[in-house]
Amino acid sequence: MLIRRKRGWEIPENRATPESVFLNRREILAAAGMGAIGLAAGSMVLPGLARAAEADPSAGLYPAARNPRYKIERDVTPEKINAHYNNFYEYSTDKELADAAQALKIRPWTIQFGGLVEKEKTVGIDDLLKAMKLEERLYRHRCVEAWSMTVPWTGFPLADLVAFAKPLSGAKYIQMETFLDPAMAPGQNQPFYPWPYVEGLTMAEATNELAFMVTGVYGKPLLKQMGAPIRLHTPWKYGFKSMKSIVKVSFVEERPVNFWQQLQSSEYGFWANVNPEVPHPRWSQASETVIGTNERVPTQLFNGYGEFVAGLYKGLESEALYM
Ligand SMILES: Nc1nc2c(c(=O)[nH]1)N[C@H]1C(S)=C(S)[C@@H](COP(=O)(O)O)O[C@H]1N2
Ligand SMILES: [Mo]
Q: Where do the Oxidoreductase molybdopterin-binding domain residues begin and end (predicted)?
Protein backbone atom coordinates (compact mmCIF):
# COMPACT_ATOMS: atom_id res chain seq x y z
CA MET A 1 0.00 0.00 0.00
CA LEU A 2 1.23 3.42 -0.86
CA ILE A 3 0.95 5.91 1.95
CA ARG A 4 1.99 9.43 1.25
CA ARG A 5 3.59 10.68 4.40
CA LYS A 6 3.19 14.36 5.04
CA ARG A 7 6.64 15.85 5.31
CA GLY A 8 7.43 17.66 8.54
CA TRP A 9 8.11 21.01 7.00
CA GLU A 10 4.91 20.88 4.94
CA ILE A 11 2.90 21.14 8.10
CA PRO A 12 2.32 24.85 8.68
CA GLU A 13 2.05 24.30 12.46
CA ASN A 14 5.81 23.86 12.41
CA ARG A 15 6.14 27.53 11.68
CA ALA A 16 3.80 28.52 14.45
CA THR A 17 6.31 27.26 17.02
CA PRO A 18 9.66 28.59 15.92
CA GLU A 19 12.73 27.08 17.51
CA SER A 20 13.54 30.35 19.24
CA VAL A 21 10.77 29.63 21.71
CA PHE A 22 12.28 26.29 22.52
CA LEU A 23 15.81 27.68 22.67
CA ASN A 24 14.75 30.49 24.96
CA ARG A 25 13.20 28.03 27.31
CA ARG A 26 16.43 26.13 27.49
CA GLU A 27 18.42 29.27 28.10
CA ILE A 28 16.11 30.33 30.88
CA LEU A 29 16.64 26.93 32.43
CA ALA A 30 20.38 27.27 31.94
CA ALA A 31 20.43 30.74 33.46
CA ALA A 32 18.54 29.34 36.42
CA GLY A 33 21.31 26.77 36.78
CA MET A 34 19.01 23.92 35.85
CA GLY A 35 21.20 21.88 33.60
CA ALA A 36 21.25 22.12 29.78
CA ILE A 37 24.53 20.29 29.60
CA GLY A 38 26.90 21.31 26.88
CA LEU A 39 25.34 24.70 26.07
CA ALA A 40 27.92 27.05 24.66
CA ALA A 41 29.26 29.38 27.33
CA GLY A 42 28.37 32.55 25.39
CA SER A 43 24.70 31.72 25.21
CA MET A 44 24.37 31.85 29.00
CA VAL A 45 25.53 35.43 29.25
CA LEU A 46 22.30 36.87 27.90
CA PRO A 47 18.94 36.14 29.44
CA GLY A 48 16.37 34.53 27.17
CA LEU A 49 14.59 37.70 26.13
CA ALA A 50 17.72 39.60 25.15
CA ARG A 51 18.76 36.65 23.03
CA ALA A 52 15.37 36.66 21.28
CA ALA A 53 15.90 40.34 20.40
CA GLU A 54 19.23 39.27 18.92
CA ALA A 55 17.30 36.89 16.63
CA ASP A 56 18.47 36.64 13.04
CA PRO A 57 17.71 39.95 11.25
CA SER A 58 17.10 38.05 8.01
CA ALA A 59 14.25 35.99 9.51
CA GLY A 60 11.62 37.98 7.57
CA LEU A 61 13.02 36.73 4.23
CA TYR A 62 11.84 33.18 4.91
CA PRO A 63 10.16 31.03 3.79
CA ALA A 64 10.92 31.72 0.10
CA ALA A 65 8.98 30.22 -2.81
CA ARG A 66 10.13 26.77 -3.85
CA ASN A 67 11.66 26.31 -7.29
CA PRO A 68 9.85 23.21 -8.64
CA ARG A 69 12.59 22.47 -11.19
CA TYR A 70 14.66 20.52 -8.66
CA LYS A 71 12.66 17.39 -7.97
CA ILE A 72 13.43 14.68 -5.48
CA GLU A 73 11.96 11.22 -5.11
CA ARG A 74 12.81 10.86 -1.44
CA ASP A 75 11.29 12.21 1.75
CA VAL A 76 12.87 15.31 3.19
CA THR A 77 15.03 14.48 6.21
CA PRO A 78 13.24 15.74 9.33
CA GLU A 79 14.75 18.93 10.71
CA LYS A 80 15.21 17.42 14.16
CA ILE A 81 17.42 14.71 12.68
CA ASN A 82 19.37 16.92 10.29
CA ALA A 83 20.03 19.45 13.07
CA HIS A 84 21.83 16.80 15.14
CA TYR A 85 23.83 14.99 12.47
CA ASN A 86 26.37 17.41 11.06
CA ASN A 87 29.96 17.65 9.93
CA PHE A 88 31.54 20.90 11.08
CA TYR A 89 35.09 20.18 12.24
CA GLU A 90 35.48 23.75 13.49
CA TYR A 91 33.19 22.64 16.34
CA SER A 92 33.63 18.91 16.69
CA THR A 93 34.55 15.73 14.91
CA ASP A 94 31.33 14.23 16.37
CA LYS A 95 28.06 14.52 14.46
CA GLU A 96 26.24 15.84 17.54
CA LEU A 97 27.65 19.35 17.57
CA ALA A 98 24.53 21.52 17.54
CA ASP A 99 25.12 22.89 21.05
CA ALA A 100 28.81 23.58 20.45
CA ALA A 101 28.03 25.39 17.19
CA GLN A 102 25.80 27.92 18.99
CA ALA A 103 29.08 29.72 19.83
CA LEU A 104 29.27 30.75 16.16
CA LYS A 105 28.59 34.50 16.03
CA ILE A 106 26.74 35.29 12.78
CA ARG A 107 26.36 39.10 13.06
CA PRO A 108 28.14 41.21 12.12
CA TRP A 109 29.23 39.00 9.20
CA THR A 110 31.05 40.18 6.11
CA ILE A 111 32.19 38.49 2.95
CA GLN A 112 35.32 39.69 1.24
CA PHE A 113 35.50 39.48 -2.56
CA GLY A 114 38.99 39.53 -4.02
CA GLY A 115 41.56 38.12 -6.40
CA LEU A 116 40.83 38.57 -10.09
CA VAL A 117 37.83 40.90 -9.81
CA GLU A 118 37.04 44.27 -11.32
CA LYS A 119 37.16 45.79 -7.84
CA GLU A 120 37.76 44.18 -4.44
CA LYS A 121 34.92 44.68 -1.97
CA THR A 122 33.65 43.60 1.42
CA VAL A 123 29.91 43.17 1.81
CA GLY A 124 27.77 42.61 4.89
CA ILE A 125 25.57 39.52 4.79
CA ASP A 126 22.33 41.49 5.12
CA ASP A 127 23.27 43.77 2.22
CA LEU A 128 24.12 40.73 0.14
CA LEU A 129 20.78 39.11 1.00
CA LYS A 130 19.01 42.27 -0.16
CA ALA A 131 20.77 42.06 -3.51
CA MET A 132 19.83 38.41 -4.12
CA LYS A 133 16.55 36.73 -4.98
CA LEU A 134 15.95 33.83 -2.60
CA GLU A 135 14.27 30.56 -3.54
CA GLU A 136 13.83 27.16 -1.94
CA ARG A 137 15.29 24.02 -3.51
CA LEU A 138 15.02 20.41 -2.40
CA TYR A 139 18.47 18.87 -2.82
CA ARG A 140 19.98 15.52 -2.01
CA HIS A 141 23.21 15.66 -0.02
CA ARG A 142 25.72 12.77 -0.23
CA CYS A 143 28.63 12.73 2.21
CA VAL A 144 31.84 10.95 1.23
CA GLU A 145 31.28 8.86 4.41
CA ALA A 146 28.43 7.07 2.54
CA TRP A 147 25.37 8.65 4.16
CA SER A 148 22.82 11.01 2.65
CA MET A 149 20.01 13.39 3.48
CA THR A 150 17.42 15.40 1.58
CA VAL A 151 17.35 19.05 2.56
CA PRO A 152 15.01 21.99 1.80
CA TRP A 153 17.63 24.71 1.36
CA THR A 154 16.85 28.37 0.73
CA GLY A 155 19.35 30.55 -1.05
CA PHE A 156 20.40 31.78 -4.47
CA PRO A 157 22.48 30.42 -7.36
CA LEU A 158 26.24 30.71 -6.96
CA ALA A 159 26.13 32.08 -10.53
CA ASP A 160 24.35 35.16 -9.11
CA LEU A 161 27.14 35.62 -6.55
CA VAL A 162 29.73 35.34 -9.33
CA ALA A 163 27.89 38.01 -11.34
CA PHE A 164 27.76 40.21 -8.23
CA ALA A 165 31.53 39.81 -7.67
CA LYS A 166 32.41 40.69 -11.31
CA PRO A 167 35.42 38.43 -11.91
CA LEU A 168 37.93 39.24 -14.64
CA SER A 169 38.18 36.99 -17.69
CA GLY A 170 41.48 35.52 -16.41
CA ALA A 171 39.71 33.86 -13.46
CA LYS A 172 39.76 30.07 -13.79
CA TYR A 173 38.57 29.01 -10.33
CA ILE A 174 36.52 30.33 -7.47
CA GLN A 175 38.01 29.77 -4.02
CA MET A 176 36.08 30.14 -0.79
CA GLU A 177 37.18 30.24 2.85
CA THR A 178 35.48 29.68 6.18
CA PHE A 179 36.19 32.04 9.11
CA LEU A 180 39.34 31.59 11.18
CA ASP A 181 38.68 32.27 14.87
CA PRO A 182 39.87 29.60 17.31
CA ALA A 183 38.31 31.51 20.22
CA MET A 184 34.88 31.07 18.59
CA ALA A 185 35.48 27.60 17.15
CA PRO A 186 37.41 25.28 19.46
CA GLY A 187 38.14 22.77 16.69
CA GLN A 188 40.43 25.37 15.15
CA ASN A 189 42.78 24.90 18.10
CA GLN A 190 43.63 21.49 16.66
CA PRO A 191 46.90 22.29 14.85
CA PHE A 192 46.77 19.03 12.91
CA TYR A 193 44.11 20.52 10.59
CA PRO A 194 44.97 23.08 7.87
CA TRP A 195 42.61 25.87 9.01
CA PRO A 196 40.79 27.76 7.66
CA TYR A 197 38.56 25.39 5.67
CA VAL A 198 39.04 26.10 1.96
CA GLU A 199 37.19 24.86 -1.10
CA GLY A 200 37.15 25.62 -4.79
CA LEU A 201 35.30 25.03 -8.05
CA THR A 202 36.07 25.72 -11.69
CA MET A 203 34.26 28.75 -13.08
CA ALA A 204 32.14 26.40 -15.22
CA GLU A 205 31.08 24.47 -12.09
CA ALA A 206 30.47 27.65 -10.11
CA THR A 207 28.16 29.02 -12.79
CA ASN A 208 26.30 25.73 -13.33
CA GLU A 209 22.68 26.21 -12.31
CA LEU A 210 22.91 23.60 -9.53
CA ALA A 211 25.66 25.31 -7.50
CA PHE A 212 23.72 26.98 -4.72
CA MET A 213 24.56 29.47 -1.99
CA VAL A 214 22.53 28.50 1.06
CA THR A 215 21.31 31.04 3.59
CA GLY A 216 18.23 29.27 4.91
CA VAL A 217 16.83 25.83 5.64
CA TYR A 218 13.40 24.42 6.55
CA GLY A 219 11.86 27.79 5.69
CA LYS A 220 14.01 29.74 8.18
CA PRO A 221 17.47 31.29 8.37
CA LEU A 222 20.24 28.69 8.19
CA LEU A 223 21.03 26.92 11.47
CA LYS A 224 24.47 27.55 12.90
CA GLN A 225 25.44 23.89 12.86
CA MET A 226 24.64 23.82 9.11
CA GLY A 227 27.04 26.66 8.34
CA ALA A 228 25.19 29.93 9.01
CA PRO A 229 24.95 32.57 7.79
CA ILE A 230 26.01 31.40 4.32
CA ARG A 231 27.34 28.11 2.91
CA LEU A 232 27.69 26.39 -0.42
CA HIS A 233 25.85 23.31 -1.65
CA THR A 234 26.98 21.39 -4.74
CA PRO A 235 24.63 18.41 -4.72
CA TRP A 236 26.47 16.37 -7.37
CA LYS A 237 29.68 16.34 -5.32
CA TYR A 238 30.64 14.75 -2.03
CA GLY A 239 29.52 16.83 0.92
CA PHE A 240 32.95 18.14 1.87
CA LYS A 241 32.83 20.47 -1.16
CA SER A 242 29.76 22.16 0.37
CA MET A 243 31.65 24.41 2.70
CA LYS A 244 30.13 26.32 5.57
CA SER A 245 30.19 29.81 7.10
CA ILE A 246 31.95 31.58 4.23
CA VAL A 247 33.84 34.85 4.80
CA LYS A 248 36.00 35.07 1.71
CA VAL A 249 35.43 34.51 -2.01
CA SER A 250 38.39 34.83 -4.39
CA PHE A 251 38.80 34.36 -8.12
CA VAL A 252 42.11 32.74 -9.01
CA GLU A 253 44.12 31.27 -11.85
CA GLU A 254 45.58 28.34 -9.89
CA ARG A 255 43.48 25.37 -8.83
CA PRO A 256 42.73 25.67 -5.09
CA VAL A 257 43.91 22.87 -2.80
CA ASN A 258 40.98 22.17 -0.52
CA PHE A 259 41.03 21.41 3.21
CA TRP A 260 40.61 17.66 2.86
CA GLN A 261 43.13 17.46 0.05
CA GLN A 262 45.69 19.30 2.18
CA LEU A 263 45.03 16.80 4.94
CA GLN A 264 45.02 13.59 2.89
CA SER A 265 45.55 13.97 -0.85
CA SER A 266 45.61 10.21 -1.39
CA GLU A 267 41.93 10.06 -0.33
CA TYR A 268 40.40 13.44 -1.20
CA GLY A 269 40.80 15.47 -4.35
CA PHE A 270 39.63 18.64 -6.03
CA TRP A 271 36.73 17.27 -8.08
CA ALA A 272 34.95 14.95 -5.63
CA ASN A 273 32.09 14.09 -7.98
CA VAL A 274 29.84 11.32 -6.62
CA ASN A 275 30.39 7.99 -8.38
CA PRO A 276 29.23 4.63 -6.98
CA GLU A 277 31.82 2.78 -9.07
CA VAL A 278 34.86 4.54 -7.67
CA PRO A 279 35.43 3.42 -4.08
CA HIS A 280 37.06 5.55 -1.44
CA PRO A 281 40.45 3.96 -0.61
CA ARG A 282 38.95 2.69 2.67
CA TRP A 283 35.30 1.95 1.83
CA SER A 284 32.82 1.36 -0.99
CA GLN A 285 30.79 4.22 -2.45
CA ALA A 286 28.24 1.87 -4.08
CA SER A 287 25.46 2.62 -1.59
CA GLU A 288 24.52 5.06 1.14
CA THR A 289 22.62 5.13 4.42
CA VAL A 290 19.63 7.46 4.28
CA ILE A 291 19.85 9.32 7.59
CA GLY A 292 16.62 9.21 9.55
CA THR A 293 15.55 5.88 8.01
CA ASN A 294 16.79 2.30 8.16
CA GLU A 295 17.33 2.31 4.42
CA ARG A 296 20.50 1.71 2.50
CA VAL A 297 20.04 2.74 -1.15
CA PRO A 298 22.26 2.55 -4.24
CA THR A 299 24.36 5.65 -4.87
CA GLN A 300 23.89 7.31 -8.26
CA LEU A 301 26.49 8.81 -10.60
CA PHE A 302 26.72 12.56 -9.88
CA ASN A 303 24.32 11.82 -7.02
CA GLY A 304 21.56 11.61 -9.64
CA TYR A 305 22.26 15.07 -11.10
CA GLY A 306 24.00 13.92 -14.30
CA GLU A 307 21.47 15.63 -16.58
CA PHE A 308 22.66 18.98 -15.21
CA VAL A 309 26.39 18.44 -14.78
CA ALA A 310 27.79 15.55 -16.83
CA GLY A 311 28.70 17.97 -19.65
CA LEU A 312 31.05 19.86 -17.33
CA TYR A 313 33.53 16.99 -17.43
CA LYS A 314 33.80 16.31 -21.18
CA GLY A 315 37.47 16.37 -22.11
CA LEU A 316 38.55 16.05 -18.46
CA GLU A 317 38.53 12.24 -18.37
CA SER A 318 42.23 12.11 -17.46
CA GLU A 319 41.52 13.97 -14.19
CA ALA A 320 40.69 12.26 -10.89
CA LEU A 321 37.05 13.34 -11.22
CA TYR A 322 35.59 11.02 -8.56
CA MET A 323 37.68 11.54 -5.42
N1 LIG B 1 33.72 24.83 7.20
C2 LIG B 1 33.32 23.56 7.07
N3 LIG B 1 32.49 23.22 6.07
C4 LIG B 1 32.09 21.92 5.93
C5 LIG B 1 32.57 20.90 6.80
C6 LIG B 1 33.44 21.30 7.86
O7 LIG B 1 33.90 20.48 8.68
N8 LIG B 1 33.79 22.63 7.96
N9 LIG B 1 32.18 19.60 6.59
C10 LIG B 1 31.72 19.24 5.24
C11 LIG B 1 31.13 17.92 5.15
S12 LIG B 1 32.21 16.59 5.18
C13 LIG B 1 29.80 17.72 4.97
S14 LIG B 1 29.13 16.17 4.72
C15 LIG B 1 28.86 18.85 5.03
C16 LIG B 1 27.81 18.59 6.10
O17 LIG B 1 26.81 19.56 6.08
P18 LIG B 1 25.58 19.40 7.10
O19 LIG B 1 26.17 19.34 8.47
O20 LIG B 1 24.74 20.60 6.88
O21 LIG B 1 24.91 18.11 6.73
O22 LIG B 1 29.50 20.09 5.32
C23 LIG B 1 30.75 20.27 4.69
N24 LIG B 1 31.22 21.62 4.93
MO1 LIG C 1 31.01 14.85 4.35
A: 105-260
| Superfamily per CATH, domain 27-308 | Oxidoreductase, molybdopterin-binding domain (3.90.420.10)
CA distance 98 to 95: 8
Query: How far, in Å, from the CA of 118 to the mean position of ligand 1?
Result: 31
Residues 177-220: tens digit of each pLDDT = 999 999 999 999 999 999 999 999 999 999 999 999 999 999 99
Whether the ω angle into residue 47 lies within 30 degrees of 0, i.e. cis, is no
One-letter amino acid for residue 175 of the chain:
Q
Stretches in the chain below the pLDDT threshold 50:
1-53
279 exposure class (CB count in 10 Å sphere: 0-12, 13-18, 19+) = middle
Q: Where are the domains of the chain?
A: 27-308
CA distance 205 to 174: 9
For ligand 1, whether the C-beta of 177 sits within 6 Å is no
Say if residue 252 is exposed, middle or buried (CB neighbours under 10 Å; 0-12, 13-18, 19+).
Answer: middle
Q: Is 17 annotated as contributing to ligand binding?
A: no
Tens of pLDDT, residues 30-39: 444 444 444 4
DSSP 176: E
Give the DSSP H/E element, type plus range, for residue 196.
none
Cα separation of 253 and 300, whole Å?
32
Closest CA to 111 of 97, 127, 96, 99: 127
Among 82, 87, 215, name the best residue to mutate to test ligand 1's pocket (greatest count of ligand atoms within 8 A of Cβ): 87
